[in-house]
Design goal:
This protein is α/β, with parallel strands linked by helices and 272 residues long. It has helices at 31-44, 65-82, 94-102, 119-124, 152-169, 189-197, 200-203, 217-223, 231-243, 254-271, and strands at residues 10-16, 48-52, 86-90, 107-110, 130-134, 177-180, 210-212, 248-251. Helix 1 packs across helix 2, helix 2 (65-82) packs parallel to helix 3 (94-102) and helix 9 (231-243) runs parallel beside helix 10.
Length: 272
């Protein structure tokens, strides 16, 4: 299990068991392919694996609860039984959360920050599970339709702290809560750049911050490169995020990110 204080930056490996995710859709749809990828990420040094059964890319189509369960639970169960690694499930559906927790999920990673029907109560009912609360403006289907903020940092901070308070009010403990500013989820390139630049305003809060920028359109916009050519841009953002205090990096590229963060942490520790 991961220590909650996360003194060393952690790496969360992305495992999308979906046909339509923006970067790796269709690559790991079968249980065997997904498990093989999980084994590789574990060998590469991932601290936790994040399984997603429904794409949250801009404009993605929603799927049924049963379809998401059919994608996620068999993969989760196999990884939990055969690998000594923590598992997160990326979902916004209370039923999927409940079944994932029963199957051994360590964390629920919800892009809607437990605002869905029964989601908060479902997670709060389990005293062992951790949660990552993410900021999003709108929904995955609508989030990139002209996002607007008067003050992007203040609004994200206010939202996340409100969701933290909702979790605490439901009986969750503070050491089970992580926050995610939601890069690319209802944000323009300018919003995302400002968010990286001022990330310390979130990391100075009492909750560890997860950052997910791997292969995202921000990198494509800045470098004019397709999804398959965004590794180095993603590593640069990961290093900047950790330098600003992020405690977990969510990535498709585990081995490269682990190496980059080891160097970053060595330098930061030396500076202390």
């Amino acid at each position: 299990m991961m220590p909650h204080n996360l003194l060393t930056p952690q790496v969360m490996g992305i495992l999308n068991v979906t046909p339509d995710s923006f970067s790796d859709g269709g690559l790991f749809c079968s249980k065997d392919a997904a498990f093989k990828q999980a084994c590789q990420m574990y060998e590469d040094g991932a601290n936790i694996i994040d399984i997603g059964g429904e794409s949250t890319r801009p404009g993605a189509q929603a799927i049924s609860v049963q379809e998401e369960l059919d994608r996620v639970i068999p993969v989760l169960s196999k990884i939990h039984a055969e690998l000594p690694i923590s598992i997160s499930v990326d979902t916004s559906k209370a039923t999927v959360m409940r079944e994932a927790i029963a199957a051994g999920a360590y964390m629920i990673n919800d892009v809607m920050a437990l605002r869905g029907d029964n989601s908060l109560a479902t997670v709060a009912a389990s005293h062992d599970v951790h949660v990552c609360l993410m900021h999003i403006q709108g929904t995955p289907r609508t989030m990139q339709h002209k996002p607007h903020y008067d003050n992007v940092i203040d609004e994200i901070k206010t939202f996340l702290l409100e969701r933290v308070q909702a979790c605490l009010g439901a009986g969750m403990t503070s050491d089970h809560i992580m926050i995610d500013p939601g890069f690319g989820f209802g944000k323009t390139v300018a919003h995302n750049l400002l968010l990286i630049q001022q990330l310390h305003l979130l990391t100075e809060l009492d909750y560890p911050v997860l950052v997910g920028v791997s292969r995202k359109s921000l990198i494509g916009h800045l470098l004019n490169k397709p999804v398959t050519k965004r590794l180095y841009g993603g590593l640069a953002l990961a290093v900047l995020a950790v330098n600003k205090g992020a405690r977990m990096i969510r990535t498709h590229d585990v081995a490269e990110t682990v190496d980059a963060l080891k160097i970053t942490q060595a330098v930061l520790q030396q500076a202390e």
